[in-house]
Amino acid sequence: MRKMRLPAFMHATAAKILCSLVAVAALSGCSAIKLAYNNLPELGYWWLDGYVDFSGAQTPQVRDQLAQLLERHRRNELPKLLALVEKAERLAPDDVTVSQVCMFSDEIRARVLAVALDASQPGAELAATLSAPQLQYLQAKYAKVNAEYADDWLDRSLEQQHRKRYDAFLDRSEDFYGTLDNGQRTLLRELVDRSIFDPRLVDAERRQRQQEFLGLLRRMGSGKAPVRELRAAIDAYSKRIAEPPPGAWKDYQHALLQESCSNIAALHKVTRPDQRERAVRRLQSYAQDVRDLIAKPLPARPTTAQDPTAAVR
């Protein structure tokens, strides 16, 4: 199945904090997008289960809370997402500035944080029930994720890393604009080759976040602290990810974000009128998908015992 992606000057900061919402971007076609959105509680359940291995007692609670989270997202967040896509549609026919691109980045991060904070109450209630074996399961899952990241990035040469990023940038861009010409592809290559992206820094930061979260759960989870205190700790953790404290990581993240905004603006500047027309049509299609989901949700498919996330991993 071909992947649907966010438009080019929104994609750079599409966050991955809430897997059950990010899953929508893994599918393509109007009906698939709508169907995936309405099945996010099921997709989200299986994704989370892969991290903590839910017990029979936890499963109904998790499914119910994910369904409620989706409905709140539909009411509160989809209209804001629609406004953002419509704004991108208005900007797409013309050149865009770096600050305009970063405005989309900032708004996307704000929306992701809003969802994370909304999810913190049911998340704290669940964390209060996690057992020691489940925390060990989570630690083992983190180790597997880290090994996969090392295989994807750290074990590759610099040239291979650049090629991987170039291929991803090209794929996203052509999904949005259509086929790029040789000059545009050369620009992409130059942007990637001079990028400050360093997978070692990303790996180190992610590992630190993982250990911080595990430590939080071991100190306060499993009934060791009231749910309200656990929720406050989870909220603080989410906010630190969204807005890191002063230091080397914050500086690097800001510089990388500025670079990404600049790259997207630079590519958009050299696109042809027909490519921008295609971009507008894509944005119009995205906007209509969101309107349809707000106005008339599709019924979710019946749940099954099989992991439905396997097809989109």
Q: Could you describe the 3D structure shown?
A:
The chain is an all-alpha fold. It has helices at 8-11, 19-22, 30-38, 40-52, 58-76, 78-91, 98-127, 132-154, 158-177, 182-193, 199-220, 227-242, 248-269, 273-295. It has one domain.
Biggest sheet architecture? none
Q: What share of residues are in beta strands?
A: under 5%
Q: What percent of the residues sit in helical stretches (DSSP H or I)?
A: over 70%
**Structure annotation, total helices:** 14
Rg measurement, Å: 20 Å
How many strand elements? 0
Q: Topology, please?
A:
Layout: H1 8-11, H2 19-22, H3 30-38, H4 40-52, H5 58-76, H6 78-91, H7 98-127, H8 132-154, H9 158-177, H10 182-193, H11 199-220, H12 227-242, H13 248-269, H14 273-295
Give a short synopsis of this structure.
By secondary structure, the chain is mainly α.
